[in-house]
Design goal:
Shape: globular
Protein name: NAD-dependent epimerase/dehydratase domain-containing protein
Number of helices: 11
Structural class: alpha/beta
Bound molecules: uridine-5'-diphosphate
Distance between the termini: 31 Å
Cofactor: NAD(+)
CATH superfamily: NAD(P)-binding Rossmann-like Domain
Organism: Candidatus Schekmanbacteria bacterium GWA2_38_11
Largest sheet: 7 strands, parallel
Number of domains: 1
Number of strands: 13
Helix content: 40-55%
GO biological process, one term: D-xylose metabolic process
Keywords: Decarboxylase, Lyase, NAD
Length: 321
């Protein structure tokens, strides 16, 4: 099969490309990002890297025309972007998604849309099932722009589905693993990783009792591949996540333990890290029944095992990334 992965040079997209290459498929990556995460595939004749934007409709049209399946993973992700450049988040995530869907509809190509557990916002009812409510804060709080942009993308997917386009929506829950982000930026694991490598205390926001379900990349990729290949997945939303809940304090302690370092924890305020435009989500846990029943995948890699591999990888790569 020929598979287009928008955002295929990113964390999830690069691992997804690896998985499809392993199956023998041909991959087209459309991504503005540099090639750090896909360098290992650049010499492969079945791997094509097109460095451009999903806002370039002409390029997108040509790539979708020649693909059998489209994974739309390109997006602006990361809390520092939600609070730092909300315009870019909204523009790329909403208008770019429209471009992908418009071209996919023109050529009738199935689209798997990478959404996020952020769409549930701060809904207090745990665990989140796919049809549960979205509970968000004020539009004055920039943090919610990402959730809103992805939920808008989902609405566009279902609007196109209604007129005949095969679509699948996958919502990721804090996926981590090698190639996650540069250390110090992006997500909590890379922020803690930078602090560990420099022997600094780990900055835990508040009392650290807020929770997340950390999902190892290989598990997330298995589910994502199944979402693209299975007919039964069409028209559905899937939570893609591990359902073991971990507090941020436990995560910090576990990362210190697995890294075999003597770092301490420093409690900080959310304003110190992200300024006024940030609001935290206290608990985030997926209901994973649908993923298990339809995609036949269980995201059960333990945090210890996943962290061991991830930390080894970051130690080896340092800040060269
Ligand atoms: N967090 C923290 N210290 C930091 C950065 C983040 O304790 O230096 C916390 C943050 O408050 C949140 C959790 O880590 O509760 C996960 O944050 P992340 O940025 O990975 O993304 P989120 O899951 O909120 O989308």
């Amino acid at each position: 099969m020929k598979i287009l992965i928008t955002g295929g040079a990113g964390f999830l997209g690069s691992h997804l490309g690896d998985a499809f290459l392993k199956r023998g498929d041909e991959i087209f990556v459309l991504d503005e990002a540099k090639d750090f995460k896909i360098r290992h595939n650049l010499g492969n004749p079945k791997f094509h890297y097109i460095r451009d934007s999903i806002l370039n409709e002409e390029i997108l049209d040509g790539l979708i025309f020649k693909s059998d399946l489209v994974y739309h993973m390109a997006a602006v992700v990361g809390v520092e972007h939600y609070v730092g450049d909300p315009y870019n988040v909204l523009n790329v995530n909403i208008n770019g998604t429209q471009n992908v869907l418009k071209a996919a509809f023109k050529y009738n190509k199935k689209v798997v849309f990478a959404s996020t557990s952020e769409v549930y916002g701060r809904n207090p009812n745990i665990p989140f099932s796919e049809d549960d409510d979205r509970v968000l804060g004020s539009t004055k709080i920039d943090r919610w722009c990402y959730s809103t942009s992805k939920a808008t993308g989902e609405h566009f997917c279902f609007a196109y589905h209604k007129i005949g386009l095969p679509v699948v929506v996958v919502r990721y829950f804090n996926v981590y693993g090698p190639r996650l982000d540069k250390i110090d930026v992006g997500r909590i694991i890379t922020i803690f990783m930078g602090q560990i490598l420099r022997n600094e205390p780990l900055t835990v926001i508040g009392n650290g009792m807020q929770t997340r379900c950390f999902t190892y990349i290989d598990d997330a990729i298995k589910a994502t591949v199944a979402a693209g290949l299975l007919k039964e997945a069409e028209g559905e939303i899937f939570n893609i996540g591990n359902n073991k809940e971990t507090t941020i304090k436990e995560l910090a302690e576990k990362m210190i333990e697995v890294s075999r370092v003597k770092n301490s924890i420093r409690h900080v305020t959310k304003e110190e890290v992200y300024g006024e435009s940030y609001e935290d989500i206290q608990r985030r846990v997926p209901n994973t029944d649908r993923m298990k029943n339809i995609l036949k995948v269980d995201a059960d890699t333990s945090l210890e095992d996943g962290l061991r591999i991830t930390i080894e990888w970051f130690k080896a790569i340092g800040n060269k990334y």
